[in-house]
Amino acid sequence: MCLIGFAYHCHPKYSLILIANRDEFYVRPSDLLAYWQDDPNILAGRDQLKQGTWLGINTRGQIAAVTNYRDGRKHPSGDLRSRGELTRNFLSNHQSAPHYLEQLRLEQNQFGDFNLLIGTPSSGLYYFSNTHNRGPEPLKPGIYGLSNAQLNTPWPKLNTIKEQLSQAIENEQLDVESLIGIMSDPKTAPDTQLPDTGISAPWEKTLSSIFINTETYGTRATTVLLQEHNGKTQVTEQSYDQQGKIARRTQTLCVPPL
């Protein structure tokens, strides 16, 4: 998962409004949004290679999403654990967010650089990154953005989705199509506004768009999660390949709300 915008307790109907894009190489196989056969409490897409997920929810109301932290100047070890474990392990166990993150602090360096967003009905939403000694951090009501830098780092595409999410809430345009539309913009940022994450300038330019589509790498899924204050939660996932849309799945579940 590489781009997430979310509004937490900012709407009279919804306790959480979350929109997200997962960007990945097209050759990496993954399963579409579904309840997992080996853990039917988890509703999520799944990476077939490492068996983790980029974003999911379980029937207890726990929510988790992960992005990588991009630093092209670092050369991480090849034996690091998959970041998809971070979300899978949280969703597989009945733990509060603070307790899980307290344990994770002891093994955070076993993973590549990451940003983790998790929440439970009892503890609310938390952000944690194993970079810059950031977190764990309980999140207050507000509108947030998370990409491949720390929470709310003002990259152009992050600012855009936060602004558009705010406008959608203000104008009551919270239908799934409108929210997917926010995450479908292929426009790249001006050169003067590109971040410097240690990768080549052309690649930095390519990755600056909200929706990415190259020959080998791009946005593989857009997820919209709408959770009402009564716990009714709708999760929609639109999947893509190199040629465009390939599948859409929607699931509705009733859980304790965040």
Automatic annotation (TrEMBL):
The uppermost taxa in this organism's lineage are:
Bacteria, Pseudomonadati, Pseudomonadota, Gammaproteobacteria, Oceanospirillales
Q: Can you tell which superkingdom this protein's organism belongs to? A: Bacteria
Q: What is this protein called?
A: NRDE family protein
- Do you know which PANTHER family this protein is assigned to? SER/THR-RICH PROTEIN T10 IN DGCR REGION, TRANSPORT AND GOLGI ORGANIZATION PROTEIN 2 HOMOLOG
A Pfam family recorded for this sequence: TANGO2
